[in-house]
Design goal:
The protein has 380 residues and is of the alpha+beta class. The chain has 10 helices and 12 strands. An 8-stranded mixed sheet has the order 4-3-2-6-5-1-11-12. The protein binds aspartic acid. The site of aspartic acid (ASP) has 12 residues, from strand 8.
């Protein structure tokens, strides 16, 4: 047994060395391969759904400008994914491209604009899954990689592992040529003020302003989004500042994929990992059932294995995608008093969302159709 393990470990180590020698592959590079597939088989219309987090999002709090800004950002992410799919690219490439846009957008709690830990740092989590072969990659606690979603993909494609965490994950990113940034790159004034407010409210010490952050504004910063930052379910708990991002896509070859990226929960303990990088909880994709990206109070999503649970209901109980999504969010998650939502897609083109919060930033589009962008729960 011991010997088998050693042989196994040796094979893994060799595989790791081999993959480290490979050059980085930016999103969209598989377009040519996709084009060939498209010529052979154009049976599927592509579709893509993106989300930018679920939470207490009120029209009055967001205001007309906030509302318009978020819709414009969602449209941009959706368009980035749609462009990839429209030129015959893979669902995986589309998911990565859409999420990269949202990671760069300071409005969302992922990449630049991520929330801070109680110690005033940004620790980023992400995962991605390819429904055509059940390959998956994930990273947790990343602090220097500009696009955690691309690192999750690199773990999937260029390492023998599924998940890497912390400094080892960032070091791997550097080795495979992914863009590295100073941790202050992720800093935004709005998230910082939000952390300070929460810590002061709870009588907790406020950490020093991060090294490399711009000097504090002379007048108080207006938060980027005037979103009430608390989940009403537990006033005593730390604020759940949402804005996690995710995407699910179906390409013309009939393959589906899912990805998720987040800064996690505001004022989280250093080292805390939520559902977003957990395959089966925050992200899951299988061509046999569906692809899911989740957002919400991560501990509940982990305990329920939300993403996989939705796909299991489709695969084994014969539910429609909407029925499965609603069953998990409105029955199982609510029974535990968890909050949040999911987006999901199936190989036959079903695209759904389901959430139990007052709002969820979301958008979807099918080939030949219009982009639908929604924020509040009263929008269909
Ligand atoms: N699910 C994320 C986490 O728990 C947070 C979120 O979606 O807003 O880390």
């Amino acid at each position: 047994m011991k010997r088998i393990c050693c042989v196994f470990a040796g094979v893994f180590a060799l595989a790791a060395l081999a993959v480290l020698a490979q050059a980085p592959q930016p999103a969209g590079q598989n377009v040519q391969a996709g084009q060939a597939e498209q010529n052979e088989q154009a049976a599927h219309h592509w579709s893509i759904v993106v989300h930018g987090g679920a939470g207490v999002i009120a029209r009055t709090a967001l205001g007309p400008k906030g509302d318009a800004d978020y819709r414009a950002s969602l449209a941009q992410a959706e368009a980035a994914g749609a462009r990839v799919l429209d030129r015959g690219g893979s669902a995986l490439d589309a998911v990565e491209a859409a999420i990269q846009v949202l990671e760069d957008d300071p409005l969302f709690n992922a990449g630049r604009g991520a929330v801070f830990t109680v110690e005033g740092k940004n620790e980023l989590d992400s995962s991605i899954m390819d429904g055509s072969n059940l390959k998956a990659g994930a990273v947790a606690g990343v602090t220097r990689t500009r696009h955690p979603i691309s690192l999750a993909r690199a773990v999937m494609e260029k390492s023998p592992y599924v998940m890497l965490a912390g400094t080892g994950a960032d070091a791997f990113a550097a080795r495979v040529g992914l863009e590295q940034v100073d941790p202050s790159f992720f800093f935004t004034e709005a998230r910082w003020q939000s952390l300070v407010k929460q810590l002061q409210k709870h009588g907790l010490p406020v950490p020093p302003r991060p090294v490399g952050a711009p000097p504090p504004p002379t007048s108080p910063a207006v938060p980027v989004a005037q979103i009430p930052l608390k989940f009403p379910v537990d006033e005593s708990a730390d604020a759940y500042v949402h804005g996690t991002v995710g995407a699910v896509a179906l390409d013309r070859a009939g393959n589906i994929a899912a990805g998720t990226s987040t800064g996690g929960l505001q004022a989280k303990m250093p080292g805390r990992v939520g559902d977003s990088p957990i395959i089966g909880a925050g992200t899951y994709a299988s061509n046999q059932s569906c692809a899911v990206s989740a957002t919400g109070s991560g501990e509940y999503f982990i305990r329920l294995g939300v993403a996989r649970e939705v796909c299991n209901l489709v695969a084994f109980k014969g539910m429609s995608l909407q029925q499965a999504a609603d069953q998990v969010i409105h029955q199982e998650l609510e029974a535990l008093h968890g909050d949040g939502g999911i987006i999901a897609i199936a190989p036959d083109g079903q695209m759904v969302w389901s959430f139990n919060t007052p709002g969820m930033f979301r958008a979807r589009q099918t080939e030949g159709g219009k982009v639908e962008i929604r924020i509040y729960s009263d929008e269909p």
